[in-house]
Specification:
With 486 residues, the chain is an alpha/beta fold. The chain is 36% helix and 11% strand. Bound molecules: flavin mononucleotide (FMN) and iron/sulfur cluster (SF4).
């Protein structure tokens, strides 16, 4: 993972934990209205993909175990991991693109309801993404993938050469010379692997996105409703289709790119289509970026505009992440695909303890504050969720008391200790396993292997009933916690 060059080592500091009485009067543990629903407290477990679904996207006992463990801590809400809305092979990503996925997802909602005593509300994150291929071997790229054009022939004065001769010549050229011959997209396909963009409108399925996406999201939301979820979170963040449409880098000229209004158009049309399908009694929210954190990408001003537009379109919550883009990702090894969390924008998304002078804790708070204010100024009281390096009670409480956000997202902190909410609320804050922000979990995520936390995945691993990774080396969920005083 990329880290800021300053390399300052930070230690998480959760500060003083509240007594039971202090927790009882805390804003953090007070209810909040989210559209038609009330969350019992303003705590939130944001979406985290743990790579536990089957290779064809179904819920497994390991998926159930993962969410059951979070539900035991009884946060206000849990957002189930990014789940693909199309009925296409997507590796071990969870899927909701067909009715055959409903049965497994129903089991999931029932599991969470039971484990949290009905206290925790459950949403599912709906994801669309474009195609990306692995980085090819250079020889294969020149022999098989590159389409030879007149521009290539002109650049190497090879108008009457056979295609094979052109391929062989290009394959023998050095990197510097290739830069004069290949287009930037061809160079990217060689160095990183081919990746589709929302701006590739010469491809019919990309130009057709406005015609297909609203319905795909709406149908997925309907399935989520059938499976018993309390709502959906439309994934408009990071490196995926909707975030790419929102980005300043989207210069589509068909009314869905260019100006902010046009970039917001398909995301807004999608919110409307989803709402029309599920009605007003089902929560519809979205997650988007407070900043793209890449050259030429969206700023907080763009996000403030989008926040107000999404609120106007009727979302029930706005959840803000940051960064996590392809544009600045590290070059993958040959045979691997580019991973969007490996560059500076990836750092902003999941900041690690080795950081710059700002540190990894709460980097998203100030931008989110500005976006929330813009939404309020536009006349909407839509609740806003902030996430990023939040692990302490006082830190969370200060954000709420300062009207910087309405709900606090704890992603890695919940993974480090899914009982955080229960422990802090019951006056057992000193028993919290505080996240060290090492990103050990994130490295597992990057390899698409089951995500666990280094603070507990080897503890009591051989105790009876403990489910482990296929290699038997790591337990899959955190050990149970019982307070000393019962
Ligand atoms: C293992 C892992 C998987 C993640 N998967 C998702 C995801 O599916 N969707 C999403 O929007 N964010 C995802 N994230 C980002 C988190 O939701 C969160 O925004 C980020 O970790 C920063 O919050 P934190 O500092 O509280 O961990 C993931 C993070 C981790 C560590
Ligand atoms: S492995 Fe555990 S301690 Fe390290 S960042 Fe992930 S959740 Fe935090």
């Amino acid at each position: 993972m990329w880290r800021p060059p300053e390399r300052i080592r930070w230690q998480p500091d959760p500060g003083i934990w509240p007594t039971t009485a202090e927790a009882a009067s805390a804003l953090l543990f007070s209810p909040v209205q989210v559209g038609p629903l009330t969350l019992a407290q303003r705590t939130w477990v944001p979406a985290m993909v743990p790579w536990r679904a089957t290779d064809d996207g179904f819920v497994t006992p390991e998926v159930l175990g993962w969410y059951e463990r979070f539900a035991h801590g009884r946060p206000g809400a849990i957002v189930v991991e990014a789940t693909g809305i199309r009925d296409i092979p997507s590796g071990p990503l969870m899927r909701i693109g067909d009715d055959r996925f409903i049965a497994g997802l129903t089991e999931l909602t029932e599991t969470v309801r039971k484990a949290s005593g009905g206290e925790t509300r459950l949403f599912i994150q709906l994801l669309d993404f474009l195609s990306i291929r692995r980085r090819p071997e250079a020889a294969k790229y020149f022999q098989r993938f590159l389409a030879i054009t007149e521009q290539h022939r002109a650049a190497i004065s090879a108008h009457d050469w056979s295609e094979q001769a052109v391929r062989d010549h290009l394959a023998a050229m050095d990197e510097g010379d290739l830069e004069q011959v290949l287009t930037p997209r061809e160079l990217e396909a060689l160095r990183f692997g081919y990746r589709e963009r929302v701006t590739d409108t010469d491809l019919a399925h990309i130009s057709d996105l406005p015609a297909v996406l609203p319905d795909l999201f709406a149908q997925a939301a309907q399935r989520a409703m059938a499976a018993g979820f309390d709502g959906v979170e439309l994934h408009y963040a990071h490196a995926y289709t909707m975030a790419s449409l929102l980005s300043r880098l989207n210069d589509r000229d068909d009314g869905y790119g260019g100006t902010r209004e046009h970039r917001a158009r398909l995301p807004v049309e999608t919110i409307r289509a989803v709402r029309k399908t599920v009605g007003d009694d089902f929560v519809v929210g979205c997650r988007f970026l407070s900043e793209d954190c890449i050259d030429g990408g969206n700023t907080v001003d763009d996000a403030a505009f989008f926040g107000a537009e999404f609120a106007r379109a009727g979302v029930d919550f706005l959840s803000l992440s940051r960064g996590g883009k392809f544009e600045d990702a590290k070059q993958p090894a040959v045979g691997a695909a580019t991973y969007p969390y490996t560059g500076p924008s990836g750092y902003e998304c999941m900041p690690q303890f080795i950081s710059d002078a700002r540190g990894p804790f709460g980097r998203n708070v100030e931008p989110v504050h500005r976006i929330r204010q813009a939404v309020r100024d536009a006349g909407y009281d839509t609740p806003v969720v902030v996430t990023g390096g939040i692990h302490g009670f006082q830190q969370a409480e200060d954000i709420l008391r300062g009207d910087q956000a309405d709900i606090i997202g704890f992603a890695r902190q919940s993974l480090a200790d899914p009982d955080w909410f229960h422990k802090v609320k019951s006056g057992h804050g000193e028993a919290v396993r505080v996240c060290e922000y090492t990103n050990y979990c994130e490295a597992l995520d990057q390899k698409h292997v089951p995500v666990t936390c280094k603070l507990w995945d080897r503890v009591d691993r051989d105790a009876p009933g403990v489910r482990k990774t296929p290699d038997g080396k790591r337990r899959l969920t955190a050990p149970a916690w019982e307070p000393d005083d019962g």
